[in-house]
Amino acid sequence: MIKKFLCGLTAMLIAGASVFAMSAPEGKSYYSPNKKIGVTINGGEHIQYSITLNGETILAPSPISLKLTKDNWSKGSIKSIKSKSVASETIVAPLYRQKSYETGGYTEVTVSTYAGYNIIFRIYDEGVAYCYALNKKGEVIIYDELADFTLPTDNTVYLSHSTNPRKQVAMAFQNNYQVTPISKANDKILAFFPIAVDCGNGAKMVITEAELESYPGMFVMAQPANKSLKAEFANYPKSMAKYDWRQQSYVTETEEYIAKVQGKRNLPWRVIAISECDTQLPVNNLVYSLSSPNRIGDVSWVKGGKVAWDWWNDWGVYGVDFEVGINTQTYKYYIDFASENGIEYIVLDEGWYNPKSGDMLTIIPEIDLEELVAYGKAKNVEIILWTVFNVLDEQLEAACQKYSEMGIVGFKIDFLDRDDQTATEMAYRIAETCAKYHLTVDYHGYYKPTGMSRTYPNIVNYEAVFGMEEAKWQPIKDMPENDVTIPFIRILCGAVDFTQGGMNNASKENFQPIYNDPMTQGTRCHQLATYIVYDSPLVMLADSPTAYKKEQECVDFIVSIPTVVDKTIIPQGKMAEYVVTARQAGDNWYVGGMTDWNSRDITVDFSFLGEGDYEATIFTDGKNADKYAYDYKSEKKVINKSTKLDIHMAKGGGFAITLIKK
Fold this sequence. Notes:
Layout: E1 22-23, E2 29-31, E3 37-42, E4 47-53, E5 56-67, E6 78-86, E7 90-92, E8 100-102, E9 106-113, E10 117-124, E11 127-134, E12 139-142, E13 144-150, E14 156-161, E15 178-181, E16 191-200, E17 203-210, E18 218-223, E19 228-233, E20 237-242, E21 249-254, E22 259-262, E23 269-275, H1 286-289, E24 305-308, H2 328-340, E25 345-348, H3 369-378, E26 382-388, H4 389-394, H5 396-406, E27 410-414, H6 421-436, E28 440-443, H7 452-455, E29 459-462, H8 479-483, E30 505-506, E31 520-521, H9 524-533, E32 538-541, H10 545-549, H11 552-559, E33 567-574, E34 578-585, E35 588-595, E36 600-605, E37 614-621, E38 632-639, E39 644-649, E40 654-661
Parallel strand pairs: 24-25, 24-32, 25-26, 26-27, 27-28, 28-29, 30-31
Antiparallel strand pairs: 1-6, 2-3, 3-4, 4-5, 5-13, 6-9, 7-8, 9-10, 10-11, 11-23, 12-22, 13-19, 14-15, 14-16, 16-17, 16-18, 17-23, 18-19, 20-21, 33-34, 34-35, 35-40, 36-39, 37-38, 37-40
C-alpha cells in the first residue's frame, strides 16, 4: 500500500549546485529530491524504465525506443548512465497561474545508447519526464516512436477519446473522459493527452507532453490485455486539401514516417505528473517548467482580461432598433455593452471575412472594421479577430502587419484540428509572427497545451477541452462532472478557453441542447465559479448583452474577478467530484467551488488569508437551485483567516467569493 501523506501548500526547495555526476550500472534507481519518486532504468530488447512512489510501483517496466530506419527499432543497448542533481530555479511566469515559482530542483539521468541518441530523464518532486537527445548530422527521419505506459494492476484510467472514428488523429481534441479500469478500456479508438491514471490510495498520474516543437503529438491506444497504453502518432503529411467551407486544410495522404528533424536536437518531453492527493494536480507545473523560456523579450504589452463574445449566443441581441447580425451596428452594440461593464475586449467571430474565400485580408462590406476599432478605442474596448489556422498562416506576414497597424490587438485562431509535425510547426510560426507585431493569440480548435505559453507568452489561451459550446448541440447529461474533472487533468497542462458565462441555467432534468438560445448545465453559481476555478487569462462572457443586462448583479461580480493572479492554491477537491480553488491578486483573494450532479456540503477554511479583515461578497446556490438552476443568493460578510464558512452546493452547483482586503 502507498503510505498516505498530507498534501501541503508549499513544496520543499532544493538549493545548491550539482552534487554528483557518475556512471552507473543498469537497474540502479534514481530519486526525486524529496526521495519519494524513484525511477529504475534497464536495457534489453528495448530500454525500459519504471516508476515508484514511496516504494510502491505506479508504472511497471515500460519500453521506449525510436525507429530510425524503415524496418528496425533501435536496440536497447546502454552505453553508460550518468546522473546529476540540478538545483531549484525561480521561473518567472507571466499570465500563468502564479507570477513566479520555484521548480524545487530535480535529478537528471542521461542514458547514452549505441543508437546515436541519448535519453534524458528528469525526476522532480512532482513527477518524471524523459526526452530523446539526438546527436546526428543533417536531417533525421523518424519512422516511429515506441512508448508503452505499462500499469502494475488493473488501474482506473481517465481517457479522452478521438471523436473521429474514420480518421482518428484529425479532430478538435474535445471530449469528456471515459473512466474505466484499463482492462475494460476502449481498444479501438485513440485517446489524446492529457490522460490520468488512478494509482490507488489517493495517488494519481497525469500523462502528457511538453515542448512539442516540430514533432507530432502523442496519442495512446489502450491495450487491456497487457494493462498498458501504447503510443501512436500522426504520420507526416504528404498532400493536403481544403474544405470548401472555411478553406480549412486537412491531410489527404501521409508519408510512411512520423517526423523529419534536424539531427542535433531534443525531441519533446514525455511528462508523467505524479500526485499523492488530487489537490496537487491543478497546480502541478511540470509542463511549464520543461518548456523553453521566453523567446519574445518584453511581454508588458500582453494583457489578460474579459471578452464579450458573439458566437455562443448566436449574436443573440434583441429589443433594439437595428437588424442584428454580422455588421457594424451590432458590433458597436457589443462594444457599448463591454464599455459600460469594464470588459476589455470583444471578439469578431466567424463571418467578418467571407470564410469560403480563405482571404482574411478582405473584410465583408457590412463591417467597417476601421470604424469599429476607433469606436472601441474611444470606449477603452479592444478588438480580437477570429480566423482559421491555415488561412492566417497563408497570409501571415500581411495579415499581422495590416491588422496590427489598424489597431487590432489579437487573433482567436481556430480549426487546426490535428497535431502532426507540420501542424505543430504552424503553431510555433504563427505565435512567433504574432509576437513580432504585438498580437495576442487565443488558440481554439487546438491540441492540448504543451508549454508554448512559456516560450511565447503572447499565447494566452487554448481550447482543447470539452467546453461549454458542447451544450449547444449535444444532449449530454454529465457536463458538471466534466467541469470538475478538467481542473485535475486538462488544466494541469495550461490555460483553458472554456467559453463560460451562460445565464440560461438548467437542471439535469430540464436541460435541452438549443443552438441559437443555448442553456448551460448546472447552477448559476456553478457558472460564476468557473471564472475562479479555471486558469484563463483571457476569458469569455459567452452570453449575449441582452441576457446579461437582465442579470447585472452577476455581470458586476464576474467583471470584479481578475484573470491574471499572483498565486493559486487548491484547498479542497477530488477528481470528478468537486473542486475548490483560491487565487490571490495583490492583497485580495478569490475563492470558487464546483460540484458534479451530487449536492455537497463543505466547510471552507480561510486560514490561507493574510492578517486582517476582508470584505467578502459571496454567491451561493439558492434554496431552489436543484429545480431552478438560475436560483442564487448573494450576501456580504467580513471574513478573516480564522473564519470557517459552511457552504451547501446544489446538484451541479457551486459558489464564488471575492475577498477584498479592508
